[in-house]
Write a structure and sequence with these properties.
By secondary structure, this protein is of the alpha+beta class. It has 10 helices and 12 strands.
Amino acid sequence: MSTLYVEARQMLVEALKRHLIGPSEDTEIIDEHPREHYHYGYLISQEDKASVEEDIRDEDLVDTDNDDVGEDEVLPINKTRNIRTIGITFQLEPGSVFSVQVAWARYFMVRREGRMEPSWQREPFTLTFDVSVGNRFDQQEFNHGGMAVRVLTRPLDNWIATTVSVINRGQKKDHTSDHQSDDTAYQVRLTVIDSQRQGIFTPRVHRAAKHDNEFWRDEIRFRKVRSYAIGHGCAVDWQDDGLGVYKIYTEWLPTVEVRRASSKVMESEPALSMKRLGDLSLQSDNIEGLMRIAKAYRQWIDDLHASVGDIVDDFPNARDQVQTAAMEIIQENREVYQRFIDGIEFLRRDSVALKAFSLANQAMALSMQQRDPQQEPRWRAFQLVFMVMTLPSTVDRSHPERNLFDLIWFPTGGGK
């Protein structure tokens, strides 16, 4: 991607953060109530009775009786704004030492010359401390400036599951002072750091108790992507310096770069040419070309099957679940392959279907050439396979696959 586009995108993200979360300046003064000025990234105080029904309970952050501690939690949408606590859960090597940094700000009422209404001035706060992790269940709490930081650890297999949560308890009110605080904590950020660079953070390892088959299929597809933490009431991200993850932190406005999927498969294959497929005099050559595509697809499936053992080895705690999910993926690909073969054979023996297929390709070629006369009209391999595999059930009303709803999807970036 062009550096110019990357920079423009980053500028947009930073502008959104300044507008929704803040601050514009470290000690800024704003002329409206901070809760009206900023719409996200804050924690209400314990004393804010108006929003107490939308709070996340402290004990919801970690269920200490649940063997699956650390699994993803989904909060109702009305519980993602007016909350007084956020947290992150991660896994550590036993005996680890890590640093916790919490940053937040409060806004205090000030009077400005020439203004009848009060203004609000930002005052930043920070809390930093180290935590030593033992080999047993433990809970510690640290307090500063009306904020409490709770550290909960417990053994989990060969690691220590650790949850660090931040709770806005609110500051003591001094009703005799004009220096009144909103009591809400803004721009809250929680960071845990492997300050000694000992590689203490370990990727999350899913346990065999997870019985959602779709979950394991996704884990197989994204097995090379490591997850080091989950957020409670917020998103979470981490930094890797090349030697390993050394910092995990909360994010109120998470971003991720989605890489474009490539469709460059068998690009030089003559059978992908719409003009050739539209030429009935090349019927035999076109059928052979379609069979070459099928052969390449079958080889890809066989290679995938051969890698199942290595994939299962990546999940030592859930071998059975992963083996089952992997073989289902293989079987579904084999079914698509067979449907493609059936479609090719259908074209070979049905002259009317072949003529319709030829005319369809002629029409597509003419349409694409009108749009771009310099570009040879060609199919992508996955498009052609999809079209051919659905031909038999499209033509034959009694076909057993007639009841299937076939959907073609490819992440082109067009916003489907």
